[in-house]
User: Fold these one by one.
Assistant:
Number 1:
Amino acid sequence: MSYTPPGQDPYAQQPDPYAQPQQPNPYGQPQPPAQQPYGEQPGLQQPYAQPWGTAPLKQNNGLALAAMIVGIIAIPAACCALLGVAVGAAGAIMGHISMKQIAQQGQSNRSQALTGIICGYVGVGLGILNGIAGLALNLNGGFGSF
């Protein structure tokens, strides 16, 4: 037991020997923002805005999209010879018309029109081959003649 001098409360709260001493805030009080010497210029609230804006987007040709869709459908439609030829021809024709419109109007989806033309011609070719194969098998008696 430790000795307490007379006149002091032996049960009083003692200071914590492990506590950190209180130090004042090294940064001090927060300062108000500094005033711009010439004030703020109107219209420049976004500091990282693009200075010249963005380029205008080119318009898409809807017929080119339709040509691409019809041309792609023409390839599996070639299982029925007449259907493949008709759908493929429609896709190729729409693709050629849309290519002309794109060149005249400066539109941006030339690749869709080209896809419609190519797939349309492939559908026509497969439809013709399917028709020829069907006629050849039918004239020879089909598979039963082998």
Number 2:
Amino acid sequence: MVPDIPPFSMDISAGSSRRGSKALNMIIVIGLIALVLVLDLRRRDAEKKLMELSVQVEQQGGNQAQNQEIAKQVVARVRKLYVIPEGIEPTVATIVDVAQLRSRNAFYNKAKNGDHLIVTNDRAILYDPIADKIIDVVPVQIQAPAAEPKK
């Protein structure tokens, strides 16, 4: 005669496969999260490189009329955030090497490559075009070039 198999023996094997299935699902979820994080880091890196390259192209290439139009657009955006008198045309520069500027002046500590420097006759304005925010404003004194001594 065959001994009776207790009915709970089937549940033990089913519970074991459920635990294995849960562990496998957990590994898949963790793997997908890791994949998303890696892809996001690569996207951000590519975006940063694209911004740097576009700033370099803007500085090196382009014609004078195109550069003047970009400067006018930047000044128009800054005028929405800060009062710049209408009678003056400020000088606009795009920051390309912020590390070099930081070594010379603490004004650039909050700046990053791609930001704009707008200089009027009495103010220097640091502007972030991506965040559309003014980072810093400092007074400036523009000195006329010294006359050459007469011989």
Number 3:
Amino acid sequence: MNASSLPDVPDFVALHQGFTTLTPGQKADLRRVAEPDDLLMTPALYRLFPGQRPNAQHLRLAFLLPWCDHAAHSQPLARQLPERNVTEMRVIQIARAEPDADVIQLRRLVMHIKPTVDWNEFGKTLWFWGAHSKRKFVEDFYLAQYATSKGKH
């Protein structure tokens, strides 16, 4: 079952494509916000989700959308982090942070490394962001870190 077949779950790849069709000014408006709730007064948010009343899940998506390119079958974000020299302290800090602070820290990270993700998968992670997603994020990081160090021997 894919995400778009779940009720009320957007097509994350189509959402990314919709972002690419926004004007440069609309994209800049999304990049400029400091916190997810700031998006509620940003017209570009409503262009991304026409006819919908955005909730926290929509805000998380729009908050990260400008900072991650899309390529199908890309490695999950957390698995890309060891090769980008992201420390375990930063990953744990994101996982332990309270709501909104966690997403703000995650955005700072992706702004720094400018990853390419599979929006079908990354979108699901953001849509269902919570304790389970954070744990999987940490596990993926450590699994990738182990695979990287094992490959160096």
